[in-house]
Amino acid sequence: MSGIRVTYSGLISFAIGIGSVITGMIFILIVTRQLTSNELGAWTLIGGLITYIIISESVISYWVTREIARGTESGKTAVFASGIFSIVGIVIYLLVAYVGAEQFKVDKNILFFASILIPVIFLDRTLSSINLGWKPQAASYGSLAFEYLKIPAGMIFVYFLHLGVTGAIITTFVAYFLSTIISLIYARNKIRNKIRIEFLKKWLKLSWLTYYPQLANLISKFDVLIYTLIVGSVTGLAYYTAAITISSLVAQSGTISKALYPKLLEGDGRQYLQENLIRVFYFIIPLTALSIAFARPALFALNPLYEVAAIVAIFMIIRIFFTTLTGVFYPALTAIEKVDIDEKATFRDYLKSKLFSLPTISIIQASIYLISLSIVLLFLVSSRLEQINLVIYWSIIMAVTEFPLTIYLYTLVRKNFVLKIGHEILLKYSLTSIGVFGTMYFLSTQFLEFKKSIFEFLPNLLLFVLSGMLCYFMITYLIDNRTQELFKAVIKELRKRN
Questions:
Q1: N or C: which end of the chain has fewer CB within 10 A?
Q2: Whether the predicted pLDDT of 17 surpasses 80
């Protein structure tokens, strides 16, 4: 399947990802300006609960991407299985919501109503995984529809109708529904085959291998519940949500590598990793500098109440920097693993493979993170610290515990791939970013007025942000040959037909 174009798909994913951050910020602006801190905390809690349920879908998406990329037509079976799994997921979610509503101090009816999100998220993820296996850019188009529909829907249900958390749920449902339709259109050629139970049997038989990698994510996601249960309030989750929103910009640099995974699954893409990683650094370094420089004004834009969470946002930005690199290394290493191609592979063979060893390392890291968070919160909660101080410690733990995993995976990548990334390249990007965004930060402290009216404040903030990015691109274009090649590649890819 040589039709997978890494550069084209990566650039499309990155462009859509940046657009998604902008639209996502607008949606969050709508939500944070209309919801109280308790309501925003409840919205975060709902997202956390649904995340636990959605993990079960990975048994489908994990295998269907690998199979589609290798020419196996299992798409229709994946869609069928997704529907069955979502029904089971709804039942489990409702039970958890019923039992935990009082402990969470959230309206039970709101928790129940949020269950409408489960089936559309299940189907959307399955269809995106099918598209990722043969046409990676198509997986991004659904995301684009999701992000852009959230704005008008959010304006209607949250801003004008004042439906609060219920409005946010309806908005998300409508956006996911459209995203599913878009993904379905692109995936239609891959879901015309018959439903084959043998595919489902294989996925269920190897479900332990599918769920095992998800265990690390599941453990990490318990941080929201741990905080809520130990502290006994969802107010701190509002600071968490606002800060994580600011840091999400950095994560978009990782979308450059979105098409690398299916390309490596084909078996001929190892040479793409080095150039792809350089492009990731080209974007992740300035986006990190930008996010840190404007963390405080960005939080103020969300809601003046969350301006005090600037330190939280900075540590989360550092953490996202590491997780983004991890998100490039991890799939690259699992994609070159061939054990699942061998029909005679034994349980022991799987245990020796990267499909098992890498998740084990991730689980250890996630466990250390969660244990550290629990111990620190139990120690600090008796000190009667304010919520913002507790969240600051939380963000520090997130950043510190993520760093070792990134370094370890980097060492494995160097053993399995040829990487010759010169330090002078990273130095160019780093120094340029520090110089440009350091200057922009200084200018913003002198001329940016913190006005409560979002219509007055946001345009001025965006002027500094866009000016900084433009300066970065111009300077790196002048001093770096690879940047010149990147711009030429962008123009070349845009001229090609999709």
A1: C
A2: no
